[in-house]
């Protein structure tokens, strides 16, 4: 199992949100410095979210992200503001290892097949942001149907992996909700990376034992509630 610390970027700064609300942002400073710190501490890769892109300002932070990719050989998965095949292809050509398609995947599902055919399914991750069992799109504002049904559809279209984010627990630093993760893992065969609520080594152990391929710690990591080294120790214990 792999650990990808979240580096969420808003207006050039590393932030953590609560329940996806920009007005609830806690600012932590330089995103490049944080990403490099997590790599130095042994992270398997970096999970970058261009929050400005997610809120409709797609080019904001682009130079910063490109610079980090150019200067490191880290595994990077990137989401936020990817609104078209061209947006996704541009990031993949820049050197992002895996793009995360969320709202776009729901609005134009065939985008997944198009990108998988061109770049390989392993570089296309479908984002499943779920609240109360329903996929949420457009900045987690609009429900779009069963998260399980969408997961199965994304897999059938050629997504090489899924990012499951439980919006109900995201940013609260109170632990994961395991049952919906287990249900998702039962329904699909592609690797599933889990985000939302990861606050302890026990959370990571539960996800690992359930069969998750990866985890994205965020708020609890930045707040010092949990150490990256402890998460990595549990995640890699099976290897």
UniProtKB/TrEMBL annotation:
Pathway: Amino-acid biosynthesis; L-histidine biosynthesis; L-histidine from 5-phospho-alpha-D-ribose 1-diphosphate: step 4/9. SUPFAM superfamilies: Ribulose-phoshate binding barrel. It comes from the Archaea. It is found in: Cytoplasm. GO terms for molecular function: 1-(5-phosphoribosyl)-5-[(5-phosphoribosylamino)methylideneamino]imidazole-4-carboxamide isomerase activity. One of its GO terms (biological process) is L-histidine biosynthetic process. Keywords: Amino-acid biosynthesis, Cytoplasm, Histidine biosynthesis, Isomerase. It catalyses: 1-(5-phospho-beta-D-ribosyl)-5-[(5-phospho-beta-D-ribosylamino)methylideneamino]imidazole-4-carboxamide = 5-[(5-phospho-1-deoxy-D-ribulos-1-ylimino)methylamino]-1-(5-phospho-beta-D-ribosyl)imidazole-4-carboxamide. NCBIfam families: PRK13585.1. Belongs to the HisA/HisF family. This is 1-(5-phosphoribosyl)-5-[(5-phosphoribosylamino)methylideneamino] imidazole-4-carboxamide isomerase.
